[in-house]
Specification:
Number of strands: 6
Shape: globular
Number of helices: 9
Strand content: 5-15%
Strand order of the largest sheet: 3-2-4-1-5-6
Bound molecules: adenosine-5'-diphosphate, magnesium ion
Radius of gyration: 16 Å
Length: about 210
């Protein structure tokens, strides 16, 4: 699988999802590579942090930018799965990866300024599917309020995605400190025992998005 985590908006949780999905897949005994296509290098920094802690598994990673189609073709011969952190804007890396990815996940916070980007995202996906009709695309709503009284915000965000023909996963992530705490220390939510709910969210997202792994 070539799994692309992309979108238009910074801070929506792309790097966080790419990192946690990479650890999830590795724990499922998949031979994975994490590819950081964001010039900001957030995921590369995370991998470095991780390398300093010998209790943690090594996550193979590379950085790449520009047209990464050929890079991905080559790497896909060596790894079972590649998880790509595409970074925060429409880029050549994002567009070229979309032509060859098997899966694309687009995180959106339930906020107007994230959902406003759906117009452009729909256009991008349409272009990608013209050359890569197999591409599985889903939205995931992230950093959702935990309060039941604010659940309407989550439903509205899902509805907004649907209105742009982008299917939202039923599972969303809730705003939890553990995501941020893990992130800062080169960890995933699977390696922090204090909050098992975040772990369950990521697991459910993976199963829904990628299906049961053989
Ligand atoms: N569900 C969540 N709850 C709380 N914080 C989150 C959640 N998802 C991501 N974050 C945090 O929000 C910040 C931005 O996320 P990040 O993955 O870096 O976004 P992006 O890569 O899209 O710019 C990070 O500090 C991250 O740890
Ligand atoms: Mg990022």
């Amino acid at each position: 699988m070539i799994i692309l985590i992309g979108g238009e908006k910074g801070g929506s949780g792309k790097s966080c999802l790419a990192q946690n999905l990479a650890v999830y897949l590795q724990q499922q005994e998949r031979d994975i590579l994490l590819l950081d296509a964001d010039p900001q290098g957030t995921t590369t920094d995370w991998v470095r942090e991780r390398e300093e802690n010998e209790d943690l598994s090594n996550i193979p990673s590379v950085q790449a930018s520009g047209n990464i189609r050929q890079v991905l073709l080559d790497l896909s011969k060596r790894y079972q799965d590649i998880v790509i952190d595409a970074g925060g804007q429409d880029s050549e890396a994002l567009r070229s990866a979309m032509t060859i990815a098997t899966h694309m996940l687009l995180p959106f916070r339930p906020k107007r300024r994230d959902l406003k980007t759906l117009v452009h995202v729909e256009e991008l996906i349409r272009l990608a599917k013209a050359v890569n009709p197999q591409l599985i695309t889903n939205a995931v709503i992230t950093q959702c309020p935990a309060l039941p009284s604010q659940a309407q915000r989550i439903w509205d965000a899902k509805e907004a995605c649907e209105s742009f023909y982008l299917k939202p996963l039923a599972q969303y992530t809730t705003n939890r400190n553990v995501y941020d705490d893990a992130d800062e220390n080169g960890l995933s939510v699977f390696e922090i025992s204090s909050d098992t709910k975040a772990k369950a969210e990521i697991e459910q997202i993976a199963i829904e998005f990628l299906g049961e792994l053989k």
